[in-house]
Amino acid sequence: MQNIRIVKKPGYAVDAADRALQLILLLQETEWLRIGEAAKALGVAPSTAHRLMSTLVYRGFALQDDQHRYCAGPALHPEPAASAERALIAAARPHLEELAAAVQETVNLVERVGATARYLATVEGPQLLRVGNRAGTILPAHVSAAGKAILSTLPDHMVSAVCSRQAPSGGSALSADAVMDLLAELDEVRRLGFAVNLGRTEPDLAAVGAPLSPGNRPAVLAVSLSAPLSRAAQIQDPASTAALVSCCRSLLLDLQAQGHLPAGKGA
Predict the structure, then answer these.
(1) Distance CA 90, CA 140 (A)
(2) What pLDDT does residue 80 have?
(3) DSSP letter assigned to residue 164
(4) Is the torsion defined by CA of 221, 227, 228, 231 positive or negative?
(5) Judging by beta carbons within 10 Å of its beta carbon (0-12, 13-18, 19+), is residue 225 exposed, middle or buried?
(6) Does the N-terminal or the C-terminal CB of the chain have fewer CB atoms within 10 Å?
(7) C-alpha–C-alpha distance, residues 105 and 127, integer Å
(8) What is the DSSP string of 11-44?
(9) Which of 38, 5, 7, 37 lies closest to 22 in space, CA to CA?
(10) Which residues contact 181 (CB under 8 A, 6 or more apart)?
(11) Higher pLDDT, 18 or 145
């Protein structure tokens, strides 16, 4: 007869740790989870559930989309996908740190996943008033500076196809007029070599993003500078944008040499 060991909840269980583990299980069991739903399942206040979820996002166990919903993050993904992502971030971090030190602002590594922009890693700038860590955040690609930078490397018909259909995460599809406006904006991004977001994702945030363009193929990744809106002019000046573009070039070369450049996720 097989011996069965019954596992009981330890008397010394730390409530916060136990709730965080319960939250991880919920993320694995559901496609998308809202804070209210998490709070109800855990039997805690929404503010407590939000603090727990924010910690999971920071550590890569959860991702947040633009509708304030959460899903399982890369730390919960099976190998080798998680290992490949960790290697990518490790290879990119020195470049992000160098750029953050040069421009004195927060720097992000961003990946396009279908019609969304997913923030893989952040190096915060050194200034007291700065944009915080955005790793794990998911935003619509057509409003994020990094997302627009990546979209600018696609032909127009692919941009239309990506942005005209509803995202699996529930994001809204763009109307025909909105797609035409986006295509006109992407023409300017291609001319400049970088994209700008002034208060479109958050009212007090400005960002500039440039793609990692591997030859004639569409980009999968971008690097962005994020700053308070009051410093929008500084991150758009020629010295800052030149440093951003230079970072993207050197990072792309390193990722290609080390075999860390990811394939695209979603058409």
Answers:
(1) 25
(2) 57
(3) H
(4) negative
(5) buried
(6) N
(7) 7
(8) TT--HHHHHHHHHHHHHHH-S-EEHHHHHHHHTS
(9) 38
(10) none
(11) 145
The rounded distance, in Å, linking the Cα atoms of 57 and 76 is: 11
Q: Which residues, other chains included, contact 114 with Cβ-Cβ below 8 Å and sequence gap of 6+?
A: 162, 167, 168, 265, 266, 267
Quote the distance between the C-alpha of residue 156 and its chain's center. Answer: 23
Q: Which phi and psi angles does 219 have, rounded to 5°?
A: -75, 155
Q: Which of 125, 120, 178, 176 is nearest to 146 (CA)?
A: 120
Lowest mean pLDDT among 45-54, 123-132, 162-171: 162-171
pLDDT at 81: 61
User: What is the per-residue pLDDT across 169-212, written as a single tens digit (0 to 9) for each?
Assistant: 445 678 889 999 999 999 999 999 999 999 998 889 999 999 99
Read off the tokens for 15: 């409530």
